[in-house]
Amino acid sequence: MLTKRIIPCLDVTNGRVVKGTNFVSLRDAGDPVELARFYDEQGADELVFLDITASSDKRAILKDLVARTSEQVFIPFTVGGGISDIDMIRELLILGADKVSINTAAVSNPQLIFDASAHFGSQCIVAAVDVKRVSSSVAVYPIAEVSLDASSRFEVFTHGGRHATGIDAVKWAQFLTDKGAGEILLTSMDKDGTKDGYDIELTQAVASVVKVPVIASGGAGALSHISDILTVCDAALLASLLHFKELTVEQIKTHCDHMQLPIRRI
Question: Catalytic residue positions?
Answer without folding.
Answer: 11, 130
